[in-house]
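This section describes the prediction task in plain terms. A model, or a person checking by hand, is given the sequence of a single protein chain and must write out its three-dimensional structure as a string of tokens. No templates, partner chains or ligands are provided. The sample shown here is typical of the held-out split.
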Amino acid sequence: MSSAIVVLGAPNDSDGNLSVMALSRCDLAYTYFSQKNHLKIICTGGVGAHFNTTSTPHAQYLKNYLMSKGVPQINFLPLVESRFTFEDALLAREVIEEHKITSLVIVTSEFHLPRAKLVFSTIFPQITFHYLAATTPLSDDELLKLEKHERDVMERERRNLSTLLR
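The expected answer:
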């Protein structure tokens, strides 16, 4: 069985500095990797107005940060240059299939976990999943806004998945 950690993207600023949300996800992924350093890592995130306005893919910033913590280059699988959760899973499919991955550890934020579970488990029914939820170091008001956004987009994700599976 081949396993990998998927670190889902979060915003960075116009200079490429990772947000506290992205850092919390990376730190949780690193902690898990430290205990199971045979695992491969897939970093997600491309370029988009709502999360990364630089010309460097967000996934590269995640990878750079994890390498600065001590994850060797050899543990990384190709970057997935996606713009949103649904695309994270769709674009990761090629990497997952090419490397014969049968088990995934999905690392995201606690408020984002229901959507990540829905999308990944539907697109990869044959994969065994473990989910890690990073605590998001934001104010209660900011978290409430993020939770509302997640509730609002869940129906869209269900429609996307339904269309994909027809």
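For orientation: The two ends are 29 Å apart (CA to CA).
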